[in-house]
Design a protein that fits this description.
By secondary structure, this protein is mainly α. The protein has 19 helices and no strands. The longest helix is centred in the N-terminal third of the chain and has 20 residues. The two termini are 37 Å apart.
Amino acid sequence: MKTEDNRKTYEQIESYLKAVENNPMDIWSLIRLGYTYTRANQFREAIDSYKQALQLDPSMYLAHYGLGYSYMKYKHINEAIDSFKKAIELNPNYTQAYYRLGYLACEQQRFEDAIEYLTTLLELEQKHAKGFFCLGKSYNALHRWDEAIAALKNALELNPAYEFAWYQLSLAYAGQRHFEEALETLKKVAEINPRLEYIYDQMGRIYLRIKRVSEAIEMHKKAVESAPKLAYLWKNLGIAYLRGNRHWEAIASFNKSLEINRNNGTSHYYLGCCYLNLGEKQLSIKHFREALRFLPNHQKAKQMLDELIVSEPPEKDPLVQSASPPEKEPPVRSASPPEETPLSEEEITTGEQLQPTETDSDIAEKLKILKNKWKENTP
């Protein structure tokens, strides 16, 4: 809140406190006091005010709703849900309580429940843009793309500048594999708010899916320019570079991702792919092992590591001469990112910090040389 708004809010709190002090039975002053406390982010005090109002009149549905909203802001979600349900029980036509229940169900990934609450809301109030947005988001989560598109278009008719609705609409189009419509939709979001990094990231992912790699790289570069401290954005830029066979730029991006989040097993996997394509097998082995340290079920990393270890010649005992020439090394498969880059963000972290891996002196020296190389290619 702005300073002037803060001053007015605290003046209102003082005014309602005096009113309640003069008349402890003044239920409306208690409700207004609770509302004003909530605006001031004083949620405990808001909860106490609404509870006092409900002691005077337990049938006051507005007080139950206000109590639920205060609980929601205070992160006591179960109590919030109970209060919103009580408000509906007392007033079955109270639309805002349906909206809050739908919103919370969506946030908790109870999408069927969300659809039920939001459908009831929209039967009562057909011009609720946020209700249509949450409904569309819930349909998207269930891959019910047609219903999602219909709901989101209704939200945008009511609020053409609703950037999150445009974004969800792009997800629905992408779900239908209508990638050009998805891209056009995302461009509209970028026009509304050009600082949303996840819009550029999403555009980059879609460009990769339709094999327009240079455009994907440009979008992912815009994403990291908008939010350079987000590790997953650097990882996704690295994937785009790798798909375009620009290995040094990819290595620079993955290392930047690991500078921000050292526990990112996915970046280690892709670094292993980059070094393998550059013929640096020992560094590939190192990063595939690090990937499996954080993602022990990463089947691709496991497969690549097994193939590399099998292809490594056994160490020679200098005291024993081989009776026959060494067998020819089997070819190592080329490493590349999967053709389908998932649209959902998968940023995997753990609570432990990665400890430096013991490497032999040759690898350490090579890393020192290569580090300068990839630093030169940092976007």
